[in-house]
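Recall the central idea of this unit: under ordinary conditions, the amino acid sequence of a chain determines the structure it adopts. In this exercise we apply that idea directly, starting from the sequence alone.
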Amino acid sequence: MGMTIGQPPALLAALAARVQGGALADLDLWYFHSMPQAGKTILRYELLDRVRPHCMFMTGIERALIARGAAEGRDVVDFTPCAFSESPCLLTERVALDAFVVTVSPMDRHGWFTFGTNNDYATAAARSARDRVNADYRSVLVITDLSPSSRHALEASVRLFPETQLALCHAYDIPFAGYLENAAVQADFTRYDAEATERFMAEANLPAGAAASIRRIVERGDPETLLADHAARAAWV
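Accordingly, the structure predicted from this sequence is:
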C-alpha cells in the first residue's frame, strides 16, 4: 500500500472487510510508513493471523502490535529496514507485488491522474503490480461522488466491461441526519438524489442505451463504512 496520505481509508476498510469475511487469506502487506487509517482497518491485531505486515519503518502502530503479539507468544510483524531511496528497488526487484492500493488525485478532463506529493515508491509499485483475474467479472461497482472528474471512472467501466452488470454507487454523509426523520425533508433528499444521479448519467459519454442497464445506488452515511459493507457482502465487488 502507499505511504502516509497515500493510504486510502475506504479501500483499506474494504480490504479489511474482505479479510475478515474470509475472502482473502495469507495476505502479505508491504509498506513504508503506516497511518492511523491503516491501524484502524487492515492492521488490526485480530486480522494478523491472515495478514502479514512487512514494514520498512516502524511507527507506534507496529510497536503496539509487536508488544501485544509478544505477550501472547506470537510474531506478528516483519520489520524490513530499508533506506527510503531503496524502497522502489525493494518493491520491484525483491518483492512480487500482485496489487497496489494507493490514493491518487482526481482525474483531469483527459482522464489522467497523478500520485501527487505521495509519489515516493508509488510509480514503481504501480508499474510492477501484477494483479490478474482468473475469471470474468460478474459485476462491477463504480464508486462516484457525482463530480465531473468521476465520470471518467463510469465511462471507462462501461468501455472495459460492456457485458458486465454495472452498479453506480454514490454515498454521502449528512451532518444533521436527524432531519431525515421529517417525511418532507426525506422526500426532498430522495428527489435530489435521483435528479443528481440522472444528471450525472446524462452528462457522461456513454454508448446509446448503456445508462438504462446501470443500477443506481445512493446511500446516506459514512462513505468509508458503506463501502466496507459492500465489500463484506461482496455483492458488487
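The CA atoms of residues 24 and 88 lie 26 Å apart.
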